[in-house]
Amino acid sequence: MIFLRRCRYFLSLSKSLNGDVSFGRVYWRVHVLPFGQVPVTLRPYSARLSPNEVTTILRANENSEDVNIGSIKSYDSNQLASNSPIEDMRAEARCLLTTGMLFGVYDGHGGPACAQVVSKRLFNYIAASLLPSDVLHKLLLQQNVNKLESQFLRLIDTFNDRYEMVEDLQALYYKSFQLYLQELSSQGDNEFSMHSELERAFIRLDEHIMKEGKGELITSDHCDNNENLLKKTLSVALSGAVAAVAHIDCEHLHVASCGDCQVVLGTRTSEADDLSTGWSAVVLTNEHNAENEKEVQRILMEHPENERDRIILNQRLLGQLAPLRAFGDCRFKWTKDEIAEYLAPVLGQQANVNHSITPPYLTSKPEVIYHRLRPKDRFIIIGSDGLWDMLSPAQAVRLVGEHMSGKTVLSPYSLPPGHEDIKLGTIHATLMRRMEAFKLKPIDSNSATHLIRHALSGTDYGLDHNRLSYYLTMPENTVRLFRDDITVTVIFLDTDYLSQRPL
User: Are 126 and 100 in contact (CB under 8 A)?
Assistant: First the structure.
C-alpha cells in the first residue's frame, strides 16, 4: 500500500500505476506493481515544456483587480487544476447594501458540484445576514419572483465570476434564499454579532443543500423535469466542500473557516524599506482534521462513549473523510433511514457509511476569528490545501514580501509629483533600492501566480524548470496522487488608510 500525497478520501494503490518521483534534484518515472511482482523500476525524466509554455499554463486563470475600497488596495488570484474538472473554486465580491468585501476559497471533494454551488451562494447568505431588519422587510415585500431575483443579485457585486448557474437550479436556490430572508426578518433587531451571523450563514446554506438533496424544496413550478433537478441537487449534497471566507470592513477582519483551507496574514516586523525581509506569518485559521486534537475531542464528545473508538479511524472521520467540518457530504449527516430512502436507490450499498450510528458526524459550522488590522499588516493569503501542502505559511509570506519588493522594477522609474524640489540624494537612494530589487525581480506580476510557481518548482537553489514542467505534464490519472488543485487569493492592504484609523 503506497501513499503518494494526502487525499481527502482514503486511497490505496492495489493496481499498477505509472507515476513520477524525485530524488534530490533528478526526476524519474516510476512503475509500481502490486506486492509480490517485479520491483519498482526507475529511469530519468526530462522536461517536456519550454519556459514560455510553462508560463502560459500558469497564467491561464490568473486575475488582478485594483479595488481601492477602505483598507483594500487590490488583490491577485489564480488557480491551477489537478482534477478534471477542477474541484477548487474562488469568489470575491463587494457588499452593496452594507460596507465591506468578501473573499473566499472553496476546496471540493467527491466532485466539484458542492464547491461550485457554495461559491455561488454563500456570499449572498452572508450579505443578507448583515442587513438591518428594515432592509430585509423591503426585500420580502417584493412579491414578484423576477423582482425578488433582481434584489437577490444586487446584494453583492462579484469580480471575475466565470460560472453561470443553470436556470432550473437558480429558481430553486432563489426559493431557498427567500426562506432565509424570512428567517432573518423574523428575528427583529436583536443585538448584532458578526461571529454569530457568519456561523448562521454557513449553517443555513448547508441545511438548504441537505433539504434540496432530498427534494423537500422542489415543487412543480421549478422545472418540467423535477427528476432531473433532483439528480443535480443530490449530487451537490453527496459531494463536499471546505471553505475559508474573509470579510474585510475598514480595519475589521473576520475569518470564517470550515475544513483545511487556510488564511494567513503577512505582517511587517521591520521598518526597513527592504520588503524582501522582516516578515511574520500570522495564521488566522485552524485546520479541522484529525491532527487537530481539540477538533477531534469536539466530535467525540458529541457522540455516545461506546462508539468513540470508531469515529476517527486512520486519521479520518469514520475511516473515510479527512476534513472534520464541511459543506455537503450528506452520507456523514443523514440517518440510516434517510440514506436508505434518498441515496440507496442511486448508490446501492455504497451509500452506507460503516460505523455510522448517531449522525450527524459532520458540520459546516465555521470557526470564526477576528483580527483588527494595523498598519503593519500588509497582505492576506487565502489558499486551498493544494498550496499549503507545498508551502508553509512562513514561506508563502516571505515569497509575497519578496514579490512586492521585486515587482517595483517591472515598471520604469518615474519621479514623484512635485519632483522639482526633490533632492539628488533621495533619487540616488531610490535608484539604489531598485538595483537591489532587481535581484528579486519576479517572472510573474501576479503574486498568486508567483506563489504557485514557487510551490511547484522552488528548491534551496532557486526555481527548477524540470520539476515545474514535470508537474504540469503528468497524465490526468496520475497527477492527483502527487499534487492537489491549487487556488490562491492574495489581498493587499492600504497601509496609509489603516494608519489613519482609530486604534
Answer: no
